[in-house]
Amino acid sequence: MFQAGYGDSLLVQVEKEGGATVNLMIDCGLNYKNNILPNLKRLLKDQTIHRFIITHYDKDHIQSASKFLEDNGRFKDEKIAKIEQVWLNTFKHLQFSKRNTEELSSEETEKVKSYISEATSKSNSELIEGDIGAKQATALGANILENKYPWNIDTGEEAICIENLQEVNITDNVKLHLLSPNKKRLQNLESEFHSKLSKMGLNPNTESVFDDAFELYNLENNDKNEEEGNISSSEKAINIRTIKLFTNGENYIKDDSIGNGSSISFILETENKKVLFLSDAFAEDIIEELKKKYTDESKYPIFFDAIKIAHHGSFRNNSPELFKVIDSNHFLFSTNGKHPKHKHPDVETISCIINRSLPEGVFNRNLIFNYELFHLNGFNDRNLKTEFNYEIIVQEETVI
Known about the structure:
alpha/beta; 15 strands; 32% helix; globular
């Protein structure tokens, strides 16, 4: 888990003795120049990224993705690593409603371009990290096309969603099982954008200019809709009584962000191991899909060799019900806790993870963070660790 600010950027490497390493790159958030890029160069060394999975449109997940593709160069002439395929759902993949088949008038084209220009200028006025300007941080879809990377090939170039793809074999010994998004979540995303265009007097067709507008709209909208979260997390007392109290779920309010609902999440299965990657997905969607795959509820919670926690540990995406269904001895958190609107992870999420019986054969749970998080210092108490059987580890690289 690269130190990507308050965002996500993961490189998953599945090594097999005598065989080539399978690499999955998941998102490309903040801190690109100083951390993500040098680590990719060190770890990949001209290997293949078998899937570059861009989970959804949110700055802390895609801020540097376009810049990385720009630095990597064109498909089949890559400078950092070969990319076998990109997963990303943009507007061209969300054709659930009927599209206009007529060519845009010059007036309509000007309206779209004006909106793109205005949205780009707004992004440019915000703090953009280091060497990444607003133009490099946006138009991700255009960059994929320009550099000719294979895009959503696993679904026949349609949307990555559970209706179009259940499982895919990356190699003989590495398989991904998709858990989200579902078609309904993507329809919501499309419908919201249509509503915006309708207010501008536009009826979208299949021209790529709408992909650019869609990308900018989602980046702007997701930032507006980001919940205020729990700014006061650091002020909450953390002790045996409060941990048990936080676990009861009385304060749970499920996430309703349309952007987060469109997140790509999945299980990685390889030989006798499986790892759960939850992106920013809704807990309710994950529970529903896991119950379809693992039908014997007497064996719950399902044990994973590692779980990448959803939405940087936000309680709104990690319900108490979710932790009745899943468990592990490795819980992974990616954030520096410095989002301007909240401090993730929430103490309620940590409490739900640790306040329950251990799986058979497991003697403690490891909570693994890629930054030291001072608002969680209360969990570093030795008595609490003994009572609830957990350890806190701060590291970027974890071997499962």
